[in-house]
Amino acid sequence: MKVVRNAVPARRGRAAALLWLLAAAGYLLAEAFAAAALPGYSYRTDYISTLGDPSVSPRAPLMNAAFAVQGVCFAAAALLVAAARKQLWFLAFAVGNGIGNVLIAVVHSGQGNPAHIVGAVLAIVGGNAAALAGSGAPLAAAYRTASITLGALGLVCLLVTATAPSQVGGWERGSVYPIFAWQILTAVMLLRAGPKQRS
After folding, report:
1. Phi, psi angles (nearest 5°) of residue 197
2. 4 in a domain, yes or no?
3. Domain that holds residue 31
4. Is residue 1 part of a domain?
5. Closest CA to 53 of 123, 152, 120
């Protein structure tokens, strides 16, 4: 049988895929649940991290747990994939995302602590840069194109978010949601490719 160079072993691929899917689903559900409990909260005009601020959000513990789970799962899944493919830059960016999300979960936006901003930058830049670095995976060409598009879109939206536009919540989500889209896409590709990885 022909061996695909730098292919991810099927078992590692499945584990990584499940971690990415679990983290994305948990985060998006927690966000919606937390937003529903905060009167007047808007996805378009309010920052995501407001949902994790215990001084204003009644479901802040849930949102902060989602931040932490996303960070740990994102980095752990990347480790499973990068260990097989020896992609150090991809792993470094993914770990940056993990550290950033955990920082966001621990240091809340309402505390005025610069560590929260550092965490947000690490999470967003790290996640989108991981998508760009992960575009080199030995998968379909359409996957590579989608990875580059998602990573670039997220970084552009982050730059706009930094200017604090009136629709800052929407732009911030434009910088964060591509990360979830990428990890879901990658998870699906890994699950589909699993039985063929070693052939």
Report:
1. -55, -40
2. no
3. 10-196
4. no
5. 120
Separation of alpha carbons 181 and 179, rounded Å: 5
141-161 vs 114-134: helix axis angle to the nearest 10? 160
Q: pTM here?
A: 0.90
Please write the tens of the pLDDT for every residue from 91-139.
999 999 999 999 999 999 877 789 999 999 999 999 999 999 987 666 6
3 within domain boundaries:
no
Structure tokens, 80: 């499973």
CA atoms of 184 and 17, how far apart (whole Å)? 8
Residue type, 22: L
Of the candidates 105, 116, 129, the one whose C-alpha atom is nearest the C-alpha of residue 178 is 129
In the chain, the number of structural domains is: 1
**Consecutive H or E run containing 140:** none
